[in-house]
């Protein structure tokens, strides 16, 4: 093993050099990407697969459509709210990655089994929403933190792969849930078993490197000066308490709230809306395309972000997500199959891709020192988005029908696009920022 040293670059960032990934892991760090992607693929079924279950769950005697979709809102609250505490505990070595993943494995499996066998909505809220949401949050926070730690030189690309898996892993489940509605308990039991095994295996193998670890190549101080990878490095490093006092944080938080509201609205309501007009098959296809486009789009966005600038990509994605809402409603009302599928794809490429950009924006705006915790703070905005996109949307659907709900979702996404254009890097005058 080479001598372990700590270096600093011109931006004050620290790098721990001298230890290779093979020395620390016993294998190349690429393993971490695939372990994290496999875990996210398994955990994401609870979010992206839930929409396919909504029509069948709503027909359960004594259950209501509003109650069923509200369980997704509570799930999102628990899932998003776990990100910061999990990162905070991990930084203090109180919740190691294997323990977080193992707990997530059990809780995620419990959430899926609950959906298959619950006899009351209260059981769904306790088992799926709370336990399943907490489990998915633990897995999500641990996996995102792992790629941030192991790939400080390639964060955008690896985050795109891992967060993309959270979406497209549910595509087979959506297809099976739509095609085999009577087999829902068996399908969910089998899915829970697969999720438990996959996450437990990842828990046994996933590890974090030492704080500020840097790979053997590229040389960190040379890399820091390469504008292809550091277009707008943060001017200073913000701790979570400082983050909350920063004006940029509020604007970015609101963007995440609006983005999450629209995405969760589509996941909760699209299948029911489309099934009532074009049949369950087309509804499942639209939902599956939304998940597939979200996953593949996140990979693409991760690769484009460093080249074209995250703010520019974010605005384009949010504009696409806003347009998608009007396409979905028009196509559903007029039973236009091609339009409905196109709208689902556009929705996935739009609002579904923004979480990948959030990871990069947090590092670009607020620095590296507390990137995982700062991401957790801003990711918690998804909980507020769930209240808007699912809770308030239920009131709009009841009073104004789906036209009002899809129109409101489209306006929210377009408003987020406008707001994202006003994001500025903390400490740098807006007039000095390069065009992005």
TrEMBL record:
UniProtKB keywords: Membrane, Transmembrane, Transmembrane helix
A GO CC annotation given for this chain: plasma membrane
InterPro entries, alphabetized: MFS, MFS_dom, MFS_trans_sf, Proton-linked_MCT
GO-annotated molecular function: transmembrane transporter activity
Topology within the bilayer: Multi-pass membrane protein
Domain Major facilitator superfamily (MFS) profile as annotated: residue spans: 248-436
Main subcellular location: membrane
Short name of any one Pfam family annotated for the protein: MFS_1
Transmembrane portions of the chain: 31-50, 62-87, 99-119, 125-151, 158-180, 186-206, 250-275, 281-301, 313-331, 337-362, 374-396, 402-419
Subcellular location per the Swiss-Prot or TrEMBL entry: Cell membrane
Protein name per the record: Major Facilitator Superfamily protein
Species this chain originates from: Amycolatopsis australiensis
